[in-house]
Amino acid sequence: MEAEVVLASSPTDAGVSCWDLHTGAEHLRYKSCASSPHGLASVAGRFLASSQLRDRKSSSGSILYWSWNKPQVEVRSFPAEPIKALVSNSQGTYIAGGGVSGDIYFWEVATGKLLKKWHAHYRAVSCLVFNDDQSLLISGSEDGCVRVWSLFLIFDDARREEARHLFEYSFHEHSLRVTDVKTGYGGSNAIIVSASEDRTCKVWSLSRGKLLRNIVFPSIVDAISLDPGEHVFYAGSRDGKIYIAALNSPVTSNSNYGLHIIGSLSEHSKAVTCLASSADGFLLVSGSEDGMIRVWDTRTRNITRIFRHTKGTAQGPVNNVLVIRQPQNLNPRTSANSPVSPLRRHGLTLPPPLEKFANSPDENAHAKVFIGPQTTSNHLLDSSYISVQTMEAQIKELQQQGSSAAAEVDIERLKSEQLRSVQMIQQWKKMYENLHQFCVTELLDGTHTESANGPNL
């Protein structure tokens, strides 16, 4: 069983809690965090980031970084406006943030450069998510709209000038604020599930750009989580229940809750604000305004573990939960006299703060940094951020064909596909060797049997 950890944060200054999902062991508590909803992100497992909204009336906000082995904030960024939703792509190359003005900001992690900013919505961006192949960014907003953005279009200046609008799709069927958005597997053929304060969850087709299913819930849904098999999704509501909705059920339903709703989980005393699933889908983690994080077995629908985010008698709300693979340098909480961690010995540092404003186009004429795909090696990543100077000769031709940022995104995708292809070839090679060995063994055994039976004929 792969080690996974649960991360939880709240809008109050209660820090970020961290536990082992399967054993319940508590790790470090990261201090000075008052996160916005959908504002907590693990940047490819390398470090933790969170957007901060300490004062709703304030015109400024911040984005904080923590390394896994130190509870204090190490890097502070101050964007041009408060950032609500915050998300990183799976390789940790980029961070996207949704502003209260409706703008989306797109930063390069290694340099902190603000690569792009565009006006995405008429009101604040409430949630952001990348699709599984990282080529699309999906945003939900307080204006009730869900929009799909192609990063290849966003970063291709020539195509942007020709396009009538920047988004691929604009879904505006929700009548109130969008509270959460999730996407399934399948790249551009995946589904999108969105939740809204209008008490509905809507299922969309990315390939056709159409609404596939509209599900009405008894209460407002603030959080959704897709089962990895995409048979069902879970909807956390303000009545304290987690509803289970079928994605492939017939139109008719015997449920007391309504069409397509096949059951519920009910233990929270207040609104369910956030949901996350384990990698295998067997465990569901829910956070609530009651300050509790509950872990559910999705097969039996029973609670297997309960965590309390706040200490003592205080019951601050939880507004973010994440389930991620345990980072290599994350260890159970130890004393202040513990030896220096391997991370410090190897001299790894966090990337610089994110820029407040974009530089001039000439200054961003070519990408200066490239972050390779996440490795599964057990060795420490001594050089997670690699200078692109060693790669400029190889990508010069691609950069001449289009904008430099578009070329970098394309290279990221190609390198990821190459890595998957190499892994698949190795698997096929191993299968071929096993099959060859089996055939040779069978042939030799048959020859020996015939030789042994020959004299008796």
UniProtKB/TrEMBL annotation:
InterPro entries xrefs: WD40/YVTN_repeat-like_dom_sf, WD40_PAC1, WD40_repeat_CS, WD40_repeat_dom_sf, WD40_rpt, WDR18/Ipi3/RID3
Sequence ranges of the WD repeats: 118-151, 171-214, 265-306
Keyword Coiled coil attributed: yes
PROSITE patterns, per the entry: WD_REPEATS_1, WD_REPEATS_2, WD_REPEATS_REGION
Coiled coil: 381-408
Gene3D superfamilies referenced in this protein's UniProt entry, alphabetically: YVTN repeat-like/Quinoprotein amine dehydrogenase (2.130.10.10)
Keywords, comma-separated and alphabetical: Coiled coil, Repeat, WD repeat
Protein name: Protein ROOT INITIATION DEFECTIVE 3
